[in-house]
Structure formats: structure tokens, C-alpha cells
Specification:
Helix content: 25-40%
Number of strands: 24
CATH class of the domain at 58-305 and 431-447: Alpha Beta
Structural class: alpha/beta
Strand content: 15-25%
Largest sheet: 9 strands, mixed
Number of helices: 18
Distance between the termini: 41 Å
Radius of gyration: 23 Å
Length: 571
């Protein structure tokens, strides 16, 4: 007698092996049998006739650290087949907090700026009542719909140890040792690893870089070395934007070597025009391998349609010469854009050749949202078209629209319904490279800026169903076993007898993501971008159905993954 049988489906087991018709029998949290179970009995039966049954998808780059308190379903990720999510990325964990309330307040405001989480939601939806990583993990244990794991973030460690000096100077040897002690405590409690960032897009609300960007190479390596005593832990790092110089290549290799852990860096975008850049960055894996380390690039499998604004300044602060301006107050930004000389200077910087040029091609971008009556008729149109009507340059046109709206205007690239085939060819080529791993959803973050928590169903619908560029067996392997192996996650990512029963039942002919909409369901009344899925019949986590059709069940069977217990391995 089984607790659950999924009957009549084609099993795509996550290994890349060809599908096979089989039933799956579950007892408790694990798969008991795979084969012909036509005469077996079960408490619950899911009919998978005409469907594909796969392992649950594993999302290695999320920011659900705060969302986990106000939305225990962790929507919409499970609707798209995700049954395991890794958080605490980019150095932005919310534990430890320490005992000084000012540190928690700082981290809250930092997240609102750098990860696009509404401040009112963070204030009203998160209790902020823990001091240590152990207490934070305990608060979330046995409360969530899916499996989750959390890293310890560098910026939190720095702020707790150094206070306001965390965004002023390098740490002393004594402060580094205290940070290492807090990290060690977190790993001992089961945190999955350590994350940090040197990205120029990461700045706080006070006009400073985030704390991790003030760290020295020695500080970073000292923290990484702590992981060597904790098998089954992982590093995540955001290097500086642009091509990797020798220093960056050597740094990431050494981080992995001293940690005796794999490192994944974020993020690798694939485009037909950047093949040389992709190869140069993926060579970081070769440099690390030659030294006994492991470095892997995290690649986004879909276009991120950013909604940019001068108020947040996120992404725009990575334009060379713009960082200090984007850190200014709203009033100071308004004054600069009114000043002809300053506006001209910023426009020239944006028009120069630089790694962020894609985000400053104003002519091709559209106005998403604008609220002042003076801008009526602008939303949904390209800035180039509006500029021609007004007889202005696209840059001046954007400035005038934003100024009329008090900088509230959002703008970005238009959504392309049918993206070029060569773009998807570049993506598939990158996914197939063993030096890359598919992910970068950022689920839980940038809530009004972009949505990519639906990356799995977009990947399946575009690359497998619509374009036929890869088999479903290969795609499922990239969404399951590959990320499971990177993190050393035990008994997940493959459908084999004895593994945990994390399962997705899907229609391979219709699976995909619904249109993106605004959903007004965050604490404090804030909104987020959201998309349901279609073509997914059922999602099971640890033997319990958590999604049926397009609805969540009441079950919350997710495991809070602990390093050393639920993960294994080291270099």
C-alpha cells in the first residue's frame, strides 16, 4: 500500500536518459517503486496518462529570504515546477542580525534598494526577531511549501561586526575573525554556504556601496576558507560587471580552492553578439579547474524585461560615470537632470561604449508606466518615436518625461513576442556548456522591476515545445540533476527509487508561462509582477501534493535544507 501513486505517465528521470512509461509509488517522503504498479493500491492516485513526470525543478538563485515569512507558498515558483529554492545570494541574507536594532534596520533598507523589495512589505511582513542564523533557520523550519536552503551573506556579516563602518573602510584582522566566527556559527546551524558581491549595481539607500564591496581580497578569502571545515557547502559571488580581468579570474579560483567548495558566479547572459565575452567569462572555470577548484557561471535562460527608473537607479548605477549620480537623493537627481550641462554630460557617458550600453539605447526603449497628465499617450511607445514627435533627442525626451513625472516613470526594452532564433541558439549553446548552470531567477526580488521566477516553464515552452532545439530529457536534466549536483543536494534532482518524492506532472505539448501581470498582494498593499503557469497538472514535494492545476494546496511539506545533512561533497 502506497501513500501516493502517479500512474500512467512517461518518466523523464532527470539524468538525461530517454523517457519510459512507468508508474511511481511513494511512501512517506520518498519514492518506493518505479515500474508497473497497475495492481497496487494507494491512498491517493494522480492520473498522469498522456503526461510527463519529472523531478521537481531546483532554483539555485533566489531571494525568498523575506518572502518566506509572508508567503509560505513562495509563489509563483512552485506553480512553475520548482520544489527546491536556494536563497541568501549576492551577500544579502537577513541573518545574522545581531543585537543592535540599527543593523536590522539597515539591512531592511538595503534590501529595499538593491533587491527591489518594498520597504513597507519588509517592515510589516517580516518579524525581524532573531539574532543568529540558527534562530532565523529555526523560524522557517517546517513552514514552507517547498524545500529551501539559505546561505550566509557577506553584507550582513560586515554590518553586524562593523556597524556603520561596514560602508566606510576595510575590516581589521580582529573584525575579520569575528565575521569568520559568525559565518562558522551559521554553517554549523546548517546554512548552505557563503555569498558576496563586488557588483557596481549593488548600492544601499544611504549613498554608499553595499558592505561587501568594501571588503579586501584577504577578507573575502578568509571568509571563504571557513567553508573548508563544512562539507556540502557552496560559494556564490557577483564579480564586477564586464569582462573578467586576470585578478577576477584568479580571485574566484582561489575562493573555490580555499573553501574546498564550488563557486557559482552571477550572471551570464547569452546573445549571438557576445560569444567571445561568454567564452572569456566561462574560461574562469578552466582557470579554477587547473588549480583544483570549481567555478561555474549562472546563466539566465530568458530575456529579463527590466522596468528601470531614475528613482531606484538599479542597473543604471552600473553605467560608467553614473554610479555617484544614482546614489543621490531624488531631489538631487531632479536638479541634475534640469541642468543642461549635467544632462549633457550624463547623456554622453550613457552613449559611450560600455558593458551596460544595452540599457542606455534610449531610442529602442519604451515607456512602461508614467503618471503625470503631461505624459499622456507616452506609455507603451518607444522613446525614439516620442522623440521624433517632439523634435528632441531620445535622451532629452526621456529626461523631460521623467522630470514631468517626478522621476516615477519606468522604462525598458519592449517585450518581444517572437525572439530571434539565433538568440535561443546562443542560449542553448550556453546551457549545454558544463561550465554553466541554468538559473538566475531572482525569485522574491526586484518585485516591480522584472519577473523571471517563471524561467523553467519559459525554457521548456520555447526551447523544447516551440523551437524543438533540445529534447525534454535534456532540458529536464538542466533544471534538476545539474543544479542538484552543483550544490551536492542529497537524493533530489533525479527520479530513482529511494530518492525524495519531489515530482512534477506536466503536459509537454502545452507547458509554459502565462502573461505577466501586476498582483497587489504584498504586505502594506504593495504590488509585484506575477505569472501563473499552464500545462503543469501537479507538483509534489516530499510526497505531498502542493500544486494542483493552477492552485496551491494547503500543504507545507518543504524541508529546510541543512548543509552536511541534506547536502554532501567537497572538492
Amino acid at each position: 500500500m502506497f501513500d501516493l501513486i502517479i500512474r500512467g505517465g512517461d518518466v523523464v528521470d532527470g539524468t538525461g536518459a530517454p523517457r519510459r512509461r512507468a508508474d511511481i509509488g511513494v511512501k512517506g517522503t520518498r519514492i518506493e517503486a518505479i515500474g508497473d504498479l497497475s495492481t497496487a493500491q494507494a491512498t491517493k492516485v494522480i492520473d498522469a496518462t498522456g503526461r510527463v513526470v519529472t523531478p521537481g525543478f531546483i532554483d539555485v538563485h533566489t531571494h525568498i529570504d523575506a518572502q518566506a515569512f509572508w508567503d509560505t507558498t513562495l509563489s509563483p515558483s512552485p506553480l512553475h515546477g520548482v520544489t527546491t529554492a536556494i536563497a541568501g545570494n549576492c551577500g544579502f541574507s537577513i541573518a545574522p542580525l545581531g543585537t543592535n536594532p540599527a543593523d536590522g534596520e539597515y539591512l531592511m533598507k538595503m534590501l529595499s534598494r538593491v533587491e527591489g523589495m518594498p520597504l513597507e512589505s519588509l517592515q510589516q511582513g517580516v518579524p525581524w526577531n532573531w539574532d543568529t542564523t540558527e534562530e532565523y533557520l529555526a523560524a522557517l523550519d517546517h513552514t514552507l511549501s517547498i524545500n529551501t536552503g539559505f546561505k550566509v551573506g557577506h553584507s550582513a556579516l560586515r554590518r553586524v561586526v562593523m556597524g556603520t563602518d561596514a560602508t566606510v573602510r576595510e575590516a581589521t584582522p580582529e573584525e575579520i575573525e569575528r565575521m569568520c566566527g559568525l559565518l562558522r556559527d551559521g554553517l554549523r546551524a546548517g546554512a548552505l554556504g557563503f555569498s558576496s558581491s563586488w557588483s557596481t549595481t549593488h548600492n544601499d539607500t544611504e549613498g554608499h556601496m553595499v558592505p561587501s564591496r568594501y571588503s579586501s581580497r584577504g577578507e573575502l578569502l578568509a571568509l571563504c576558507a571557513v567553508l573548508a571545515d563544512f562539507p556540502g557547502t557552496t560559494l556564490e559571488f557577483i564579480p564586477k560587471i564586464g569582462l573578467f580581468d586576470t585578478e577576477t579570474l584568479e580571485l574566484m579560483a582561489e575562493m573555490s580552492v580555499v573553501a574546498k567548495s564550488p563557486l557559482n558566479w552571477n550572471v551570464l547572459q547569452a546573445h549571438p553578439s557576445n560569444k567571445a565575452e561568454r567564452e572569456q567569462k566561462l574560461a574562469s572555470s578552466d582557470v579554477a579547474a587547473a588549480r583544483g577548484g570549481k567555478v561555474v557561471g549562472l546563466t539566465a535562460p530568458m530575456t529579463l524585461n527590466f522596468r528601470l527608473s531614475f528613482i531606484s537607479g538599479f542597473i543604471l548605477d552600473a553605467v560608467p560615470g553614473w554610479e555617484d549620480v544614482m546614489l543621490l537623493s531624488k531631489g538631487e537627481k531632479l536638479a541634475l537632470l534640469v541642468d543642461p550641462a549635467e544632462r549633457r554630460r550624463l547623456g554622453e557617458l550613457a552613449a559611450a561604449e560600455h558593458p551596460m550600453r544595452h540599457f542606455t539605447n534610449w531610442r529602442r526603449m519604451i515607456i512602461h508606466d508614467t503618471f503625470d497628465p503631461a505624459n499622456e499617450g507616452c506609455a507603451g511607445r518607444t522613446i525614439g518615436a516620442i522623440a521624433e514627435e517632439r523634435g528632441l533627442s531620445p535622451w532629452d525626451t526621456l529626461c523631460e518625461i521623467a522630470l514631468a513625472d517626478g522621476l516615477r516613470t519606468s522604462f525598458g526594452h519592449p517585450t518581444v513576442e517572437d525572439e530571434p532564433q539565433d538568440l535561443w541558439e546562443a542560449r542553448v549553446e550556453t546551457w549545454r556548456d558544463p561550465r554553466a548552470v541554468v538559473g538566475a531567477s531572482d525569485a522574491g526580488a526586484h518585485l516591480d522591476m522584472f519577473l523571471s521566477a517563471n524561467y523553467s516553464t519559459v525554457m521548456l515552452s520555447e526551447a523544447v515545445v516551440k523551437r524543438g532545439m533540445m529534447s525534454i530529457e535534456e532540458a529536464i536534466n538542466l533544471l534538476t540533476a545539474v543544479p542538484a549536483d552543483l550544490y551536492g543536494i542529497v537524493d533530489r534532482g533525479r527520479l530513482v527509487e529511494g530518492a525524495y518524492a519531489d515530482l512534477v506532472v506536466l503536459d509537454e505539448h502545452s507547458v509554459g508561462s502565462n502573461e505577466m501581470v501586476y498582483k497587489h498582494d504584498l504586505p502594506g498593499g504593495a504590488s509585484r509582477l506575477y505569472a501563473d503557469a499552464h500545462g503543469i497538472d501537479s507538483v509534489v514535494c516530499n510526497g505531498v501534493e502542493i500544486v494542483r492545476g493552477t492552485e496551491f494546496t494547503a500543504a507545507r511539506p518543504g524541508t529546510l535544507l541543512r548543509s552536511g545533512r541534506d547536502t554532501t561533497g567537497s572538492l
